[in-house]
Amino acid sequence: MATQQTAPTQYIKTTSGTTFAYRQLGSSQGIPLVMHIHFRGTMDFWDPLLINALAATRPVIIFDPAGVGRSSGKIPLTFQGWADDLIALVRALGLFQVDLFGFSMGGKAAQMVALTEPGIVRKLILAGTSASQPPEDSSPETAVPREMPPSKPIEMLASADTHSQLKEAISYSFFNDDKAGRAAAKAYWERIGERKLAGEPSRVRFVGRDSGAKQQLAAAKHWSKPNSENSFERLGELKMPVLVVNGDNDTLIPSTRSWELMSRIENAQLIIYPRAGHGFLYQYADLVSGHVNRFLDGHESGNNGSRL
After folding, report:
1. In b/e form, how buried is each residue of 152-180, taking b as 16+ CB within 10 angstroms?
2. 169 versus 210: which is more confidently predicted?
3. pLDDT value at residue 72
4. Share of the chain above pLDDT 70, in %
5. How far is the C-alpha of 185 from the C-alpha of 125, rounded, in Å?
6. How far is Cα 301 from Cα 304, in angstroms, rounded to an integer?
7. Mean of pLDDT values over 233-261
8. Were 48 and a residue from 4, 94, 125, 135 both cysteine, which residue would form a disulfide, CB within 3.0 to 4.6 Å?
9. For position 145, what pLDDT does the model report?
10. What is the average pLDDT value for the chain, to the nearest integer?
């Protein structure tokens, strides 16, 4: 079985002309799990411990978004644009239905994929992410005014330029500043350094600070303004089973936003991981992969009101 450490990078061109770099891991049978990475990240930032555990029982596809890492094209300035790119990739791969996992900004794009083309998404996992900005007259069930995150974590991620700044930014913004958090950050960095494939130099580096990062932040800015075409007012349209996951102390995207997603999506389940931040899925990689596999292998459909 190909793993995150051993799977070769492949390339495919979409009808829009963008060439996407991607890797397919795990089984060749079953519904693929397609995974969208976070702000400034390439597919090399996915933790092998998480990815390999998911790929043990299903096909997993990870990729560099347009304009990121090894992929060509331009980074769209809206998450709808990110979603359109992902839909084009799925079609280019000849896939009729996928399970979709979106982490952080990738989770915002994943929401728009599921809203734009619900027929191709069997099940949806939203990790450490948020719906778009609600209108000012939102219903009482929404946390309005929303809890706002501190500015330092996103500022560190946006401004990191050197490798040491990159490591410091992720360690600070993804993990708690305590013994467990620091140990989890150290173990994460060690694991993503395990990929050493002949002929493929490592791409464990951020999208350019003064180019791609600003374009991705422009998409976040568009998301942060009320807009009925974004996800918040449309979450009720999502009818597929949805799993929402986060740590209990996310300083990038407040954990209350996960509750908001669960409360507004008819067939959603919510899991909060204790004493963990935005990088909960790496701190608890074994546990998260187990919960995701259980969710994907279950038979949830329609409105069963279930909760994990």
Report:
1. ebbebbbebeeeeebbebbbbbbbbeeee
2. 169
3. 95
4. 94
5. 23
6. 7
7. 97
8. 4
9. 67
10. 92
Q: Rounded to an integer, what distance in angstroms lies between the CA atom of residue 78 and that of residue 65?
A: 13
- Where would I find the H helices in the chain? 48-55, 79-92, 105-116, 151-159, 163-174, 179-192, 212-223, 256-264, 280-283, 285-297
Q: Which two tokens stand for residue 140?
A: 């009482």
| CA 135 centroid distance within chain | 24
End-to-end CA distance of the chain: 30
d(CA 75, CA 37): 14
Give the angle subtended at the CA of 44 by the CAs of 107 and 163, to the nearest 5°: 105
Angle in degrees, 0-180, between the axes of helices 285-297 and 48-55, rounded to the nearest 10:
30
Distance, in Å, from the CA atom of 184 to the CA atom of 190, rounded to the nearest integer, reads 10
Q: What is the number of H-type helices and E-type strands within the chain? A: 10, 8
Are the CB atoms for 127 and 46 separated by under 8 Å? no
For residues 85 and 72, what is the distance between their CA atoms, to the nearest angstrom?
11
Q: How far apart are CA 85 and CA 247, in angstroms?
A: 28
